[in-house]
Specification:
Largest sheet: 12 strands, parallel
Shape: globular
Order of helices and strands: EEEEEEEEEEEEEEEEEEEEEEEE
Distance between the termini: 29 Å
Strand content: over 45%
Length: 239
């Protein structure tokens, strides 16, 4: 999906969000999975949202929810690409995102798996002149479950977040990159895992934020993993 725009969208009731693209995969009594293999490509490029007044404003929203298991898999040189998108001059009652990538499993596990030279890339996106009630993010990547949360990368796979710019005014937090693997329940028995192997790369670079409100938390990067981070076989984690 590329080259689309939403301009001057106004929702007077402020009840509904504005999305350029929304993927919702749910398994209410089982598992949910999104799997891309054999040179597959899922891309959101050159999309634009301008002057929105909504609950949330988001260019690419991906929800994978399964009661037992939620899984997103890239394999065999497949790609998930979000490139050169923007939200500008927006007024938003809640939060504004370029990418909202959320996985949840109330009773099991949530996992993002990158294999065989696959690529998960968010690059050269911008949030400009935003006035939002809560927070704004270039990427909000969150894995939530009662038991296990895993990001696993192998065989020269790449997770890349580069060239993200945020500028504006917010009551809440300004956080261009937000990555969290955490427990949805205080009674959960197991932990999260961020694992890089087989010469894989997790890189975050060229991130900037400028916010004029100065009211709450502002930063470039927030990463929370309630468990081990494992690098093996010439893999790299670069900031």
């Amino acid at each position: 999906m590329s080259g689309n725009s939403i301009r001057n969208a106004y929702n007077s009731s402020l009840l509904y969000p504005t999305y350029a693209a929304y993927m919702y995969v749910v398994g209410t009594i089982g598992s949910s999975a999104v799997s891309l293999n054999n040179l597959s490509n899922l891309a959101m490029n050159d999309n634009f949202i301008q002057n929105t007044a909504t609950q949330d404003a988001c260019v690419a929203c991906v929800f994978v929810v399964g009661s037992i298991r939620a899984k997103f898999v890239l394999g065999n040189q497949s790609t998930f690409l979000v490139h050169k998108n923007s939200v500008t001059s927006s007024f938003t009652k809640n939060s504004a995102y370029i990418v909202n990538f959320f996985m949840n499993s109330d009773m099991g596990s949530a996992s993002l798996d990158l294999n065989v030279q696959s690529l998960f890339s968010v690059s050269n996106n911008s949030l400009l002149n935003s006035s939002v009630h809560d927070s704004y993010y270039n990427i909000y990547l969150r894995l939530q479950s009662k038991y296990q949360r895993n990001i696993t990368m192998n065989n020269r796979s790449v997770l890349s977040i580069q060239g993200c710019y945020s500028s504006g005014n917010t009551v809440g937090s300004a956080m261009p990159v937000y990555v969290i693997l955490h427990n949805a329940s205080v009674n959960g028995e197991f932990a999260s895992l961020l694992s890089l192997g087989g010469q894989s790369t997790f890189t975050i670079s060229n991130i900037s934020v400028q916010d004029e409100s100065g009211r709450t938390d502002h930063g470039m990067l927030f990463i929370l993993v309630d468990g081990p981070v494992v690098l093996s076989s010439a893999s790299s984690f670069a900031l």
